[in-house]
Amino acid sequence: MSEDLVVLRPEGLYCPAGRFHIDPWRPVERAVITHAHADHARRGHGAYLATAVSAGVLRARLGDDIALQGVLYGELVQRDGVRVSLHPAGHVLGSAQVRIEHRGQVWVASGDYFLSGIDDDCNATCAPFEPVRCHCFITESTFGLPIYRWRAQAEVLREVNEWWRDNAAAGRASLLLAYSFGKAQRLLAGVDPGIGPIVVHGAVAPLNDAYRAAGVALPPTRSLAALRERGPGAGAGRGARGGTTSAMGGATSGATSGVTSDATSGATSGATSGATRGGPADGLAAAGELKRALVIAPPAVLGSAWARSLGEFSDAFASGWMQLRGARRRQGVNRGFVLSDHADWPGLQRAIAATGASRVIVTHGYEAVMVRWLAQQGLQAGSFRTEYGDEQAEDGEPARGGGLSEAKVRDDEEAPPAAAEGSDAPLRPPVPSA
């Protein structure tokens, strides 16, 4: 039996022949990074290898001083005689699968990826998932239960636009909660900017810059503070929460050396009691501009002074977890839109079949369910116990894996930490201790 090309070590997934790790959760000498979400890309590694198109986001999140080598999709890199290349995963900007070839064996580590059971329904803000033939496929299983079957994205985005349009007609802002990196940009690319102005939280703005720098078309957005600066003056009153309710980087680098933010702090503070979610409204509300606005922010703002300062608003959460009514109820929002950057159950099955792999190793998600299904298909199946998604998500998403009744949160699709309450300013993730 040939030696495994990837094994599990305390630091993370490790390729012994090439002497490098893949998305390690502890500091290592050489790390290959599949994408820039915080549970896959961490500070403290000696050297980083990732797609060039993800360089801007990685540097924004991990620091300009990281030793990062950016490569094109499909570009071959040698590591101690091991051939390594990165291939589109369709998850977020620059996301990649890692192909490893050595002594006639080919393994692929998927990282996180998006593929659904609907033909040609891909993430429009990044290069689509590309099946890579291999002997062994290491796959995620975030939504690895038969209950998770995505509808066409166009249908979901049409519902988002209808919700926003109805709120604007009723004179209330539309607060759409979404993960700052990936989900927010996917929503921006799909909404109708003709309905009204679009406001983004300070955690979202610099990531929008990175997407635009990589050639992704996003509509114009403004910060809440910038809108206020244009207002005629301070107003009075409290509003209650409404009760009703490119192709980017596949063959080009698109790398940026850093990312800037157009956001500034300055959200007003203020408190409300009971179930009221309104707050002090400035002159913009009187002018009607904020009342027509779509406001995209990370879930951490829910219940904060920043959110209350919007005045009267209706809120919604866009996530694959909204497939479950209990998840929406726990979030306490008016609406839930089922939109995920991960593969659904049919998508996982399609991806695995397309690799032609006879052996499959399942990482984060519903591992036991997926392993059992794979064995029933006659495949050699096993799992790696990883730390992807085990820490508390700063953006506040329910846990993946472990059964429907669990109420953990996962550290994926997360934003930089929420700014101090009442602030619109972005912050960089904390540096993990050694």
Quick structural overview:
The chain has ten helices and 20 strands. By secondary structure, it is α/β, with parallel strands linked by helices.
Question: What can you see in these coordinates?
Answer:
With 434 residues, this protein is α/β, with parallel strands linked by helices. The chain is built from ten helices and 20 strands. It folds into two domains: 7-149 and 341-388, Ribonuclease Z/Hydroxyacylglutathione hydrolase-like (Metallo-beta-lactamase, Chain A); 153-337, no CATH class. The protein has helices at 55-62, 153-170, 183-190, 205-213, 224-229, 283-287, 305-308, 325-331, 345-355, 367-376, and strands spanning 7-9, 12-15, 20-22, 30-32, 47-51, 68-71, 77-79, 82-88, 96-102, 105-109, 136-141, 173-177, 198-200, 294-297, 313-318, 335-337, 359-365, 380-383, 397-398, 409-410. The strands form four sheets. It has a seven-stranded mixed beta sheet, covered by helices on one side. Strands 1-2-3-4-5-6 form a six-stranded mixed beta sheet, with no helix packed on it. The chain has a five-stranded parallel beta sheet with strand order 13-14-12-15-16, covered by helices on one side. The model is unreliable at 231-287 and 390-434 (pLDDT under 50).
Distance between the termini: 37 Å
Tally of alpha and pi helices: 10
- The helix/strand class is alpha/beta
The helix content is 10-25%
Which fold name is given in CATH as the topology of the largest domain? Metallo-beta-lactamase, Chain A
Order of helices and strands: EEEEEHEEEEEEHEHEHHHEHEHEHEHEEE
Chain-averaged pLDDT:
81
Task: Using the CA coordinates, give the radius of gyration.
Answer: 22 Å
CATH level 1 class label of the largest domain: Alpha Beta
Number of strands: 20
> How many separate structural domains?
2
Note the beta-strand portion: 15-25%
Strand order of the largest sheet: 7-8-9-10-11-17-18
CATH homology group of the largest domain: Ribonuclease Z/Hydroxyacylglutathione hydrolase-like
Inertia-based shape:
globular
